[in-house]
Amino acid sequence: MSLWSRISNAVRGERLNREIEEELQSHIEEAIASGRDPREARRAFGSALRAREASHSIRVAGWLESLLADVRFGWRQLCRNKVTSVAAVLSLALGIGSCVAAFRLIDALLWRPLPISNPSKLYVLSRKMIGLYGKPAEDSYWATPDFNLMRDAAKDQADLIAISDADRTDITWSTDDDMEKAHVVYVSGNMFPVFGLEPTLGRLLAPADDRGPGASPYAVLSWDYWNHRFGRDPHILGRLLHIGDQTFEIIGVGPRDFTGTETGTITDIFLPLNMNSFATQDNMMWHRSFLMLKPGLNPATALEPLRQHLSAVSRAFEAELSKHFSGMPQTFIDRFLNKKLVFYPAGAGISDLQKDYRRSLAILGLLASLVLLIACVNVANMMTAQAAARAQEMALRISIGAGRRRLVQLILCQSALLALLASALGAFFAAWSAPFVLSRVNPPDDPARLALTADWRVLLFGVGLMILIVLFLGLLPALRVSAVRPVVALKGGEDPHAPRRLMRGAIALQVAFCFLVLFLSSLFVTSFQRLQNRPLGFSTDRLLLLETVADKGQLPVIWNQTAEALRAVPGVNSVAISGWPLLGRIKINSEISINGAPPSPTSAWFLNVSPGWLSTMKIPLVAGRDFNPEDTSPGAAIVNETFAKTFFPGQDAIGRTFARGSNQPPYKIVAVTPDVPYSDLREPSRPVFYAPFDEIDHKSAPSTVDFATFVLHTGAQNPLALADSLRQLIAQRHNGLRVSNVTTQLDLVRDQTVRERLIAMLAAFFAVVALLLAGIGLYAVLNYSVLQRRREIGIRIAIGSTRAGIVRIVTLDVFLMIALGGCAGAALGFGAARYVASLFYQVKATDTDMIALPALAILLTTLVATLPAVLRALRTDPTVILRSE
Amino acid sequence: MAKNDSLQGSLDLLVLKILSRRPRLHGYAIMAAIASTSGDVLHAEEGSLYPALYRMEEAGWIRAEWIKKDSGRRARIYELTAAGKKQLGTAESRWQSVSLAINRVLREA
User: Do residues A592 and A658 touch, judged by C-beta distance below 8 A?
Assistant: First the structure.
């Protein structure tokens, strides 16, 4: 109460003084009114000024009052150098905003605990193994029967929870015509209770919903989905939801902030695990397994025995499973069984997005903090220069009795003002930029979604950052000022070179950071360019893709008839069918067995394509012929060159046969094509074979196809213009075919480079900002140094120094500093590049042009930035200088 | 500081006592009351009365408010708070024991 009144009094100091004055005045009037002599009364009262001063200091928080005075003074200082102050605030704001935005993204994706009870006791089960190409790999997906065994084995120490990844599924609420997409997740019934979640509406899934396959046709909506799809309709319970041929009843809505365990994707609908037909299949590994340690168990001691126990259980299950692998070489089975079960903390959720973006975001954070550091060095330099200019004023203040603490406070106030203004601006920048970056993380049709709330975590980070900046900016000048010896300073300055030495060190630091930013940026930008300009081997021009499903399966002849109907549409040049698009989400591999031998250790990827697919995609033939309508799978095959080289080295592949495993019907190779990227632009070429779209079973009868993609080459520049009419055309045929997704081949290729594009864009942005800031910093320091040394330069010119000599003394030490900083930056760059090498494509940190490029950019910037100062030095007129001194 | 404290201590005690008997007095009235009740023996130094009043106000022993006097001018009047009553009690008993002790010393000597 009293502290508060003293604080508020400090803010309204003038009014307080008037009140005190008024009360003292009324005292004297009272005395006069009671009959005393006015002069005697005034004398008895004593010094009114002293009474007022004493009263004032009692009623006011003195520290605050002086602080306010310092803030006012700092503000006036900033206003005096408007341009530099605005530049300082803007550059700091950019740095702070970038850092806070990076923190928001990193925190939301990687650190923020899930809104569940005991997130720190949640783990995810994974297996380390040797992957397809002999590299270490991880498998985090589990078969439900295996999961069930482990759940029962662990039930005394932990709850095991099965959760599938969110799948963007076609759903409908009424008829087939109103198909829409929703992220559907299958969960075991214990998820909601173990996570301690309460329903917003109705009830949540419970362990009872885990009974037999297909026995619990119930669905729970996430709060987010209920909100944006149904506007929080309270009558949602009991409504029916159709997925394929299944129908689910809505039984409840989840808690408000729980959006699933897959960070980066917001789950719309939760379904019981056992409602998915995969749940009964021993060899279908399709969901993740989480482990919640029971309360009271210490993770440090309880986890390892549990891991060994579960490992044994799972291994026994898979050993049993592997007995049914017929005709597999023993190395296959060994690799299948030789896995190591591991637990990873999953308190922040688990998603592929985290895996894909962990390093990218770390780089983003690094670049942002480097830019902030460069900006800070700039501003610190500015403050040092100003402090040096104020050395006499400070000396004067000290000699008339200012405490050194008060002087430090004065300087810190000014840097705090700068930081505060910059933070306010930076907060706006972060509020805009974090969602902006996030919206570019995934392809536009299925964006990544994170809860980017501005909560106390972000606030704490921001305030911490600000305090660091205040100290960084203010501490050095403050300490210098408080060390001022008035006698020396008033006599004309002690060591005039001291601030310059400090600023030169700052330049080296700045150049090092700037080099690091430029170096990393050039690596990322080049990676992206090389990836984007990678020769595809097929044309993406005007290719429309209709990803089509037949919920109950449909014979190839129906698919072919539909393709024929599409061919008749004006504006469509050619139509082909493939099982799925190249560079899409689907990739399937197959064992390859030559001449009935056991499968070779290398497997091949495959794709079913109709006749004319190669020509529609503009993939040429190296040799042989395209499929014709009579070709079936198995029967004929077209292989790529890597396939031919891998399985038929040094031979002509055409006419040879292979099978998809021993004792399988043979494929006869009818053509060879060049390599084209199959599912990933970054991967080296893999063996790929194309099989005819028309599949037959072992009795030579045609088998049905559940899904395929129509590939259309259109006449229009924008193939999507035709999409709606083509979708309707297929729907109107009522033959069980339905377009599930429309895209273009160009978009699929672009989606491959989303992450690289994002990093390259941000890196280029930070590189430009860093270069600009470093240039400004350099210019300011040199300019200041020339101004400081104009006496010396004037004398040098007067006694006959050459122009070259003047240029040398002005720039030599700066260039030394730049060289030093550049070397330090390169060393830092190599270290950082090693950490993110996995993000590069066909670029190495040791490539000469990767070092030459940033070096050149810095050199150019240096030249531009030093030019004005050098000219100023050369133009120095010794007579003017010497006369003015 | 210590010397001041003892002086202030007695001034504080007097002001609190006066205000406990007669609430809502302004500064001059408090001073006049100290003089008249002490039989014109004790005179508070007028200039130091107000800093003392403010200090006690900040300590929460007394509270002040502005009133309009008949003359039309404003006056700031003071009254005791609950904390002030408690403080008066402790200050009074401390004073009693101190003066008792001093008296005993004077008698012995």
Answer: yes
Q: Between A128 and A450, name the one with better pLDDT.
A: A128
Q: Tell me the mean pLDDT in the region A32-60.
A: 76
Q: How many Å apart are CA A782 and CA A383, to the nearest integer?
A: 15
Whole-angstrom Cα distance, residue A534 to residue A532?
A: 5
The separation between the first and the last C-alpha atoms of chain A, rounded to the nearest angstrom, is 58
Q: A138 vs A35, which has greater pLDDT?
A: A138
Pull the structure tokens for residue A122: 């949640």
Q: Tell whether B35 is within 8 A of chain A (Cβ).
A: no
Taking the alpha carbons at both ends of chain B, their separation in whole angstroms is 30
Query: What is the chain A residue with the closest CA to B56?
Result: A58
Judge contact between A439 and A447, C-beta under 8 A: yes
Residues of B in contact with A50 (CB under 8 A): 47
Q: How far apart (Å, rounded) are the C-alpha atoms in residues B109 and A37?
A: 44
How many Å apart are CA A334 and CA A346, to the nearest integer? Answer: 29
Nearest CA in chain A to B52: A55
**Are A59 and B58 in contact (CB < 8 Å)?**
yes
Tell me the mean pLDDT in the region A154-159: 90
Closest CA to A579 of A567, A590, A587, A571: A587
Residue type, position B41, single letter: V
Q: Are strands A218-221 and A240-243 parallel, antiparallel or unpaired?
A: unpaired
User: Per DSSP, which regions of A454-609 are E strands?
Assistant: 543-554, 572-578, 589-590, 604-609
Tokens found for residue A55 = 């009263």
Of B28, B46, B51, the CB nearest to A55: B51
Q: How far is CA A442 from the centre of its chain?
A: 10
For the segment A706-719, what is each residue's pLDDT rounded down to a tens digit?
A: 899 999 999 888 88
Asked if pLDDT for residue A492 goes beyond 80, the answer is: no
What is the DSSP-derived secondary structure letter of residue A455? -
Q: Is the pLDDT of residue A193 over 80?
A: yes
Phi then psi for residue A508, to 5 deg, are: -60, -45
CB contact under 8 A, A22 and B74: yes
CB contact under 8 A, A58 and B47: no
Q: Which of B1, B4, B46 to mutate to test the interface with A (most CBs of A within 10 A)?
A: B46
Residues of B in contact with A42 (CB under 8 A): none
- Within 8 A of B45 by CB-CB distance, chain A residues are 46
Domains of chain B: 5-108 (1.10.10.10)
* Interface touch B27/A45, C-beta < 8 Å: no
pLDDT digit string, tens, across residues A71-112:
888 888 888 877 778 888 888 898 999 999 999 889 988 998
Give the chain A residue whose CA is nearest to the CA of B61: A2
**What is the least distance, in Å, from the CA of B96 to any CA of chain A?**
29
Q: Tell how far CA A456 is from the center of its chain.
A: 21
Q: Least CA distance to B25: which residue of chain A?
A: A27
Q: Name chain B contacts of A48, Cβ cutoff 8 Å.
A: 47
Rounded Cα distance between A763 and A103, Å, is: 16
CA A336 to chain centre: 34
For residue A629, cis peptide bond before it (omega within 30 degrees of 0): no
Q: What is the ipTM of this complex?
A: 0.81
A318, A297, A320, A310: which is closest to A342 by C-alpha? Answer: A310
Find out whether A227 and A313 touch, Cβ atoms under 8 Å: no
Interface of B with A in 9-28 (CB under 8 A): 26-28
β-pairing, A180-187 vs A269-272, is: parallel
Cβ contact, residue pair B76, A30, below 8 Å: no
Nearest to A125 by CA among A401, A315, A405, A340: A340
**How close B31 gets to chain A, by Cα (Å)?**
10
The verdict on a CB contact (< 8 Å) between A20 and B50 is yes
